[in-house]
């Protein structure tokens, strides 16, 4: 009769199983990883590698940026447009072609020129590159102007067929940036701690919690002793 379905069968029966024979002549010795001993296990040698100077500078710069506090005036540039809104925004200047008329609709650029248009209340939309150190935002703005880079762009007028989409973009930008300016100008950026400082902070927090616990326990003990003294005094006075 064959075995039932769904039941695992071993290759050898219980009778054939034999206990493992241990030879008393060979002792089990733990590995000694000292000099001249056993080879140490494989480990991550990432911290022991001498990296190129460029890589070391990049990593030190990244750590410094994480440790330093960024003032709110600069930290507000970390709040950028999301992908969908950015793509719809960059479509507008691409569609604005130069027309043969007295005053064509063009994209204004240049820090001084954009500042002048803002002061004259002619600027309807101003786009600023959010990051200029690792050059990310500059080339994207420069591509609109057929240049390598650009720090800021400005739109004063748009075509009639694009006014509806332009108004939607303005509403979204106003809700995300202009209305939240008071919130952004008070918020500091970065200032991340390393493992050493976070461990110290955790230890301080545990010590404070332990101290508050001991204070609470001592307070309860003193209250108990006071109640015992009052009971003893009342009992003695009664007699």
Automatic annotation (TrEMBL):
Query: SUPFAM superfamilies recorded for this chain?
Result: L30e-like
Q: Which UniProt keywords apply?
A: Ribonucleoprotein, Ribosomal protein
Q: Does the keyword Kinase apply?
A: no
Superkingdom of the source species: Eukaryota
InterPro entries assigned: eL8/uL1-like, Ribosomal_eL30-like_sf, Ribosomal_eL8/eL30/eS12/Gad45, Ribosomal_eL8/Nhp2, Ribosomal_eL8_euk
Q: Show where the Ribosomal protein eL8/eL30/eS12/Gadd45 domain sits.
A: 95-136
| Role of this protein | Component of the ribosome.
Family stated for the protein in its record: Belongs to the eukaryotic ribosomal protein eL8 family.
**UniProt name for this protein:** 60S ribosomal protein L7a
């Amino acid at each position: 009769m064959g075995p039932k379905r769904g039941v695992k069968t071993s290759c050898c029966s219980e009778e054939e199983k034999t206990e493992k024979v241990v030879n008393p002549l060979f002792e089990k010795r733990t590995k000694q990883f000292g000099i001249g001993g056993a080879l140490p296990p494989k480990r991550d040698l990432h911290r022991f590698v001498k990296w190129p100077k460029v890589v070391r500078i990049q990593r030190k710069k990244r750590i410094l940026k994480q440790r330093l506090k960024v003032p709110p005036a600069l930290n507000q540039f970390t709040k950028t447009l999301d992908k969908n809104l950015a793509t719809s925004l960059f479509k507008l200047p691409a569609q604005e072609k130069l027309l043969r008329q007295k005053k064509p609709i063009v994209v204004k650029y240049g820090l001084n020129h954009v500042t002048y248009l803002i002061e004259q209340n002619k600027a309807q939309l101003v786009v600023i590159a959010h990051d200029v150190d690792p050059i990310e935002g500059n080339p994207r703005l420069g591509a609109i102007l057929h240049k390598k880079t650009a720090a800021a762009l400005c739109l004063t007028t748009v075509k009639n067929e694009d006014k509806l989409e332009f108004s939607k973009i303005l509403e979204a930008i106003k809700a995300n940036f202009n209305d939240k300016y008071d919130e952004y100008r008070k918020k500091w950026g970065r200032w991340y701690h390393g493992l050493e400082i976070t461990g110290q902070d955790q230890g301080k927090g545990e010590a404070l919690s332990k101290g508050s616990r001991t204070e609470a326990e001592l307070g309860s003990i003193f209250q108990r002793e006071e109640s015992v003294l009052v009971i003893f005094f009342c009992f003695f006075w009664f007699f």
